[in-house]
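Q: Two folds, back to back.
A: First:
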Amino acid sequence: MDYRQLGGSGFMVPALTLGTGTFGGNTELFKAWGQTDVAEAKKLIDICLDAGLTMFDSADIYSKGAAEEILGAAIKGKRNRLLISTKATFRSGDGPNDVGSSRQHLTEAVDGCLRRLGTDRIDLFQLHGFDAKTPVEEVLTTLDGFVKAGKIRYIGCSNFSGWHLMKSLAAADRYGLTRYVAHQAYYSLVGRDYEWELMPLGLDQKVGAVVWSPLGWGRLTGKIRRGQPLPETSRLQSKASNDAGPPVPLEHVYKIVEAIDDVAKETGKTVPQIALNWLLQRPTVATVIIGARNEEQLRQNLAAVGWNLTAEQVKKLDEASCVTKAYPYWHQAFFKERNPSPV
């Protein structure tokens, strides 16, 4: 397993991370992802550790905390062999302070994560979304306090806009507070918006990408093709999952999958392996979060490392997945002389 530096920190993370959104499955949304229990989680974690995948990502809202509880139970006796990343910010209760990134909510959230995970520290803690109602200075001083107390080792954010992230980094620099070194962001062959502003920002400010949903919300599993019905076991069959995920026109998906099929014939690799390998060659990408309902899916995804697509194969996939950018990004493309694309 390849290990990479996370952003501007000295923290090394594996190229692949196992996401635990499939652990639990006790809500309509997460049931569509998977229903892994403790026994199965232990098997998946052992397979990961044997392959050198040592980081496991969760969140306080995954199956209402059950995902963290299952992860915590599954790693007992193995804590020093692995890294844990988790997230908080989204609503976790009915109270007025059970949401956001205020000092009140983050303190409760971090303590809750530690309790459910059965650990004394979180290696990478990320804000699940931007809270426009809490001053960034309050957010950052709170997170900085957790780092100094030893509860958190490194901090990151998730699903921020470019200005959200830059405002936060500027405030951290202004007051000498702990900086975000990671941005957990949606990025895939069927969703390349990350490249427009967040990737250049990540390069400039040394913020590493922790990629979520690298298979485009289940669209790049190899089971979705032109003229074929959706597979029965797919998150795309769930209305709750579809409503929560990124919209992508089916014609765009078919075009990309057909290009991947061409590359698959040349490489002997599967559709998911090619989609994951493409991501691992992109600038700023530190680690890609893979999911797995079972051992077979996990082993297939683990085989996305240890080889690389050729430049010509990458170009073929780039061309098939290219879309018209939103303003001002399409206009900036005319000024490549002084405003080059990060890719």
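A: Second:
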Amino acid sequence: MQTAGETREILVLYYSHHGATRELARHIARGIEQVQGVSARVRTVPKVSTVCEATDSDIPDAGAPYVESVDLEQCIGLAMGSPTRFGNMAAPLKYFLDSTSDLWLKGALAGKPAAVFTSTTTMHGGQETTLLSMMLPLLHHGMMIVGIPYTEAALSETRDGGTPYGASHVSGIAGNTVASAHEKSLAIALGRRLAETAKKLAT
């Protein structure tokens, strides 16, 4: 139970290759921190090596720290993001999720709310299938999926990213297109809605 003055955290977990998904994660974190008593804990995952048994440093050179299973246990909600890889989440994020069986066995995530977000090179590059693919392991963990309702006007007005399944961004061929005003507002709205839901469930 949350006590007065206590700040609870929501994990914003992402994998980003060129930085577009990382930017979306930043806007979602902004939305989370608009809710009093809730803050964002931003984490990423390492790349999957093509060399068997290759290891990376425990601390990335730049950006968010690498996620640990304790981050999932300690946080009251999860926002998870990945670029699209042939209509699916990227391998590094899937690799991490495949290592969470211990949390599943304990039911550590059951009942916690979760939201998903993605970035694609092109408008029809698989945003919605990627968002749905990320929901599947979260549902197996017993998490409650939070989307973006059409009460958010930008969802009807956007000509870029943004779906009822989660926040999204069209990054362009070079992967460096800045998020549009609608994409930003929908990501912020998703973070805020996730935080509001998590706060209610945690009380």
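Q: And?
A: The first strand starts at residue 8 and ends at 14.
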